[in-house]
C-alpha cells in the first residue's frame, strides 16, 4: 500500500512538474493512462489513481473518449505568457524581434539570415522591371487558389531533381515558409495534441506551436539527425501527431541528416499516424544534397515545405507546400478562408529571379563565400574559447559551446548593450538544455568588433 | 410534470436541430444554462435537465467551469465538412474558388472585385520601377515587426482624416485584410466561442470563422446597418466575443451604416466585453464617408482592419490592423510566430502607388464609372424581373431579389454551364435566408450576354 502511494505521488509529481515548467499549458492533453504507465514503468491503476487525484484537485479535467487535459482557461492568447517564464533574452520571439527591430548599425551574429548585400539583388531588380512591363492581370488580380502556375511548375521540376515526385497539383504556394507550417498545423492539430521537434530546433517552431496550444516535446539532435532511440521512445510515450524538422541543413546546428537515420526514422514512423513536416528552406545552400525524408517516403507521411527568404529575398514573401493530393485540397480551402489566396506578384517576381540564368551563378558564389566565412568564424571563435559542436558541411549556421560555466542568455544581454545581437542556445531548446550554447551566423560574423565585445563580456 | 417534460424536450429539440443543421459542430460550446433559459423562457432547472439528458445520450459533454459542449472528435480540419452540407454552389468557398479558378473568358458578375483593367495599373507599374531602383535592404530584408513605416505613417494620417486617432504604434501591417481578421480571431477566440456576423455578410467570414471552430450567429442586416433589436437579443442570448462587420459599404448589400445605428450598437456593446472588427476595405469607394464604429468608439472595443486589394492591386498582398496598443503588442507576436513578419516589398509598392498624385484622380474616375455602371445594371436587371434590395450610395455591389420562386443556387448552377459565375444569396447568409437573392458586381456586369443568359435560365 505504501509503495503504491509512493508511485501514485511520483506520477502526480511528474505531471505537476510539467505544468509548473509550462511544458503542459492549460488545455494540453496529457499522455494516455496506458502510455504514462508504460513510460513510468508503473501499473495502469496507479496512473489512473494519480490522474483522478489530480482531477479532484482541479489540476486536470477529463473529456469522455478524449482523455485527460490540464485544467484552467486560457484567453486571450498572449504568446509571451504561454511559454516558459524566461528572460525575454531567451524567449522564442526575442531573437526574431531583436533581429527585425534593431537598427542596421547593430552587429547581428545571432541573426538567422544573410546580410542584404549577399542576396540576389540583381535578379530581384531585373524581375521587378519585368513585372513593371507585364500584363495587367499579373499586376492587379488574385492568384489561382494553388498559386502562380509557372513557379509551381519550377518547384515541381526542382523537387523531381532531388527525387521527390510532386506533380503540379501537389504543390501549393503560401505567403512564407512559416505560413506553410502554420496552415499544416491548423489542418492537422487540435489543442492538446503533441508535436515533436528537434532539440535544439529553429526557435520560431516553439512560438508557432504555442500559438496552436499543443504539447511540444523535444527529441535530442545528433550530428546525423534526431537521436533515433529517443525518437522511438517519444513516439511510444506521447503518440505525437506531427514532427517538424530540417533535413538538408539543420537550424541551429548546421548538421545534416544521414541516410541511415532517415531510413530508421521513417521505419519507426511507418507504424504510427505521425505526419512529418520537412522544412527544406536551406536546400540551395548545400554543396551536395543530404537525404530527404520526403524523397524516401514519397510524400505519403511526409510533407515538404520551403521558401525563398534565405536566398532570393526576405522582402518578397512566398513559400510552398508539397504534399499528398487530398491534403493539398484541404490546405487550399484553409488558405483561401484565412488569407484569401496569395499574391500573384510575389510569386511572379520570385519565379523570374530563380529561373534567371544568373541565379545559379549567384548561389555558387554564396556557397563559396559561406565556406570561407565558416572557416574564418571557427578560427575566430576558437581563439576566445568558443567551440563548434559540429563543423557544418554547408550553410550559414554554426552551433557552438561556450567556455564552461558561461550563461548564454546573460552573455547575450551584456552584448546587446554594446550593439551585438546574439542567439543564445536555450531559445532553441525545448528542454532548456542549451544554456551554454550559442548559434552564430557566419555570414554576419566577419566584423572583428564582434570578437572583441564577446571576449570582453566573457572575461567580465 | 407533463408540461415540464414537454419543455425539457423542447430544449433538447432545439439543441439537436442546431447540431443536425451543423450550426453547432463538435466542440462548440452551447449557450449557458442561464442564457438558454432566458432565450427559451423556461426555468433554469428545465434547461439543466435537458442538458443532462443530452449528456447521458453522449450528445453533449461538460467541462467543469467551462460549460457544455457538443461531443465528438473533429480532426483533421476540412472546411467543406465543417459547414452545412450544401450544394457546392452555395458553399462559402465555392464563389472564391470559382472566381479565382475560372478562365478569364468567363463572365463574372458574381465576382467580388473590379476587373483588372479598372485597377490602378499605371501606379503599380511606376511603383515597381521605383522599387527596382530602391536600396538593397528594401529588396532583400524582412520588414520591421509592425511593418513598413512609411505605409503605416500614411495609414495613421488617413485614419485621422476619418476621425480615428491611431498613432503609428497602433497600426500593424498584415498579409491581407483576411489575414488581419484571422490574427484577431486567433488572439481573441477559443473553439466554442460565439461570433456575430451580419446576415447577409461577406461569405469568406463564414469560412474563416469555421476554421476557428466557433459558433457563428447571424444578425439580420437592414439598409442602415444591423437590426438593433436583433443585435441586442443576440448579445443577451449568445454572449458573443466578437462581431465582424463592414460600415462604409457593406458586402454584399452595398448598404451603409447610419449614425443612429452606429451609436445604438455601441451603446449596447458598451456593457459587454464584445470586440468589434470593422472591415473598412471599401473606404476609398465612398463619395462621402459613412460613420465609422472605430471613430465613434475611439479604438477601445473596435478594431479597424482594411487592405488595398480592391483599389490598388489584389496581386500585391497587404492589409492592416488599427487597434488598442496592448492588443497590437500581442498581435505582432502572433504575426511573427505564424508568418514571420510581412513583406517589406509589398508594403513599399502599395505605399508608392497610394501616395502617388495619380491615385486620387484614378479613384475619382473609378467612383464615376461605378455610379454609371450601377445605374445601368439596375435598369438591365429590372428589365428581367430582378429587383435591387437597396440602391447603394457607392461601391460595386448590388444585392438583388430574384423573381418569386427562383432558387438562386440552381440559377447559378445553370448559368455556370454557360460560362457565367454568379454569387447566390445563401452563400452570404448564415441562416440560409437568402435563397432568392443574388449579389451582382456592377463593374463586372456590362456585357449584354449576362442578361441574355440570365433571362434564358430564369424562363427555363
TrEMBL record, chains A, B:
Instruction: Cite the Gene3D superfamilies for this sequence.
Output: Aspartate Aminotransferase, domain 1, Type I PLP-dependent aspartate aminotransferase-like (Major domain), Winged helix-like DNA-binding domain superfamily/Winged helix DNA-binding domain
What SMART domains does the record tag this protein with? HTH_GNTR
- Which PROSITE patterns does this UniProt record tie to the protein? HTH_GNTR
Ion transport keyword on record: no
Q: Which UniProt keywords are present, listed alphabetically?
A: Aminotransferase, DNA-binding, Pyridoxal phosphate, Transcription, Transcription regulation, Transferase
Q: Does the keyword Transcription regulation apply?
A: yes
CDD domains, per this entry?
AAT_like, WHTH_GntR
Q: Where is the HTH gntR-type domain?
A: 5-73
What Gene Ontology molecular-function terms does this entry list?
A: transaminase activity
- What InterPro entries does the annotation carry? Aminotransferase_I/II_large, HTH_trans_reg/aminotransferase, PyrdxlP-dep_Trfase, PyrdxlP-dep_Trfase_major, PyrdxlP-dep_Trfase_small, Tscrpt_reg_HTH_GntR, WH-like_DNA-bd_sf, WH_DNA-bd_sf
Domain of life of the native organism: Bacteria
Name the protein family.
In the C-terminal section; belongs to the class-I pyridoxal-phosphate-dependent aminotransferase family.
- How is this protein named in the record? PLP-dependent aminotransferase family protein
Native species: Pseudomonas promysalinigenes
Amino acid at each position: 500500500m505504501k509503495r503504491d502511494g509512493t508511485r501514485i505521488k511520483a506520477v502526480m509529481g511528474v505531471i505537476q512538474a510539467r505544468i509548473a515548467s509550462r511544458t503542459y499549458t492549460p488545455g494540453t492533453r496529457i499522455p494516455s493512462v496506458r502510455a504514462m504507465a508504460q513510460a513510468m514503468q508503473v501499473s495502469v491503476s496507479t496512473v489512473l489513481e494519480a490522474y483522478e487525484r489530480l482531477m479532484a484537485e482541479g489540476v486536470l479535467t477529463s473529456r469522455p473518449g478524449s482523455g485527460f487535459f490540464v485544467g484552467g482557461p486560457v484567453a486571450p492568447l498572449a504568446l509571451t505568457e504561454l511559454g516558459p517564464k524566461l528572460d525575454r533574452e531567451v524567449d522564442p520571439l526575442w531573437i526574431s524581434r531583436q533581429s527585425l527591430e534593431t537598427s542596421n548599425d547593430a552587429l547581428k551574429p545571432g541573426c538567422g539570415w544573410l546580410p542584404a548585400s549577399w542576396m540576389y539583388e540583381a535578379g530581384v531588380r531585373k524581375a521587378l522591371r519585368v513585372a513593371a512591363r507585364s500584363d495587367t492581370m499579373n499586376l492587379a488580380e488574385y492568384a489561382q487558389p494553388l498559386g502562380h502556375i509557372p513557379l509551381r511548375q519550377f518547384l515541381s521540376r526542382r523537387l523531381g531533381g532531388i527525387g521527390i515526385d510532386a506533380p503540379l497539383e501537389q504543390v501549393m504556394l503560401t505567403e512564407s515558409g512559416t505560413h506553410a507550417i502554420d496552415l499544416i498545423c491548423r489542418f492537422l492539430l487540435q489543442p492538446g495534441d503533441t508535436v515533436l521537434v528537434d532539440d535544439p530546433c529553429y526557435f520560431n517552431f516553439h512560438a508557432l506551436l504555442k500559438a496552436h496550444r499543443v504539447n511540444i516535446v523535444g527529441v535530442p539532435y545528433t550530428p546525423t539527425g534526431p537521436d533515433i532511440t529517443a525518437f522511438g521512445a517519444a513516439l511510444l510515450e506521447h503518440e505525437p501527431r506531427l514532427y517538424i524538422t530540417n533535413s538538408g541543413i539543420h537550424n541551429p546546428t548546421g548538421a545534416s541528416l544521414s541516410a541511415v537515420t532517415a531510413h530508421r526514422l521513417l521505419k519507426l514512423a511507418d507504424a504510427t499516424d505521425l505526419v512529418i513536416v520537412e522544412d527544406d528552406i536551406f536546400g540551395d545552400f548545400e554543396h551536395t544534397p543530404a537525404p530527404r525524408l520526403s524523397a524516401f517516403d514519397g510524400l505519403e507521411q511526409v510533407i515538404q515545405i520551403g521558401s525563398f527568404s534565405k536566398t532570393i529575398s526576405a522582402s518578397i514573401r512566398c513559400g510552398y507546400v508539397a504534399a499528398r493530393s487530398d491534403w493539398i485540397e484541404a490546405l487550399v480551402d484553409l488558405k483561401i478562408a484565412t488569407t484569401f489566396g496569395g499574391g500573384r506578384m510575389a510569386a511572379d517576381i520570385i519565379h523570374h529571379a530563380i529561373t534567371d540564368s544568373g541565379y545559379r551563378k549567384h548561389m555558387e558564389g554564396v556557397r563559396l563565400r559561406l565556406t570561407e566565412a565558416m572557416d574564418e568564424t571557427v578560427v575566430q571563435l576558437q581563439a576566445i574559447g568558443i567551440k563548434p559542436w559540429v563543423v557544418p558541411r554547408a550553410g550559414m549556421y554554426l552551433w557552438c559551446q561556450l567556455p564552461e560555466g558561461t550563461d548564454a542568455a546573460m552573455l547575450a544581454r551584456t552584448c546587446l548593450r554594446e550593439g551585438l545581437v546574439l542567439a543564445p542556445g536555450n531559445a532553441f531548446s525545448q528542454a532548456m538544455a542549451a544554456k551554454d550554447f550559442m548559434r552564430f551566423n557566419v555570414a554576419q560574423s566577419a566584423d572583428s568588433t564582434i570578437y572583441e565585445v564577446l571576449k570582453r563580456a566573457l572575461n567580465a
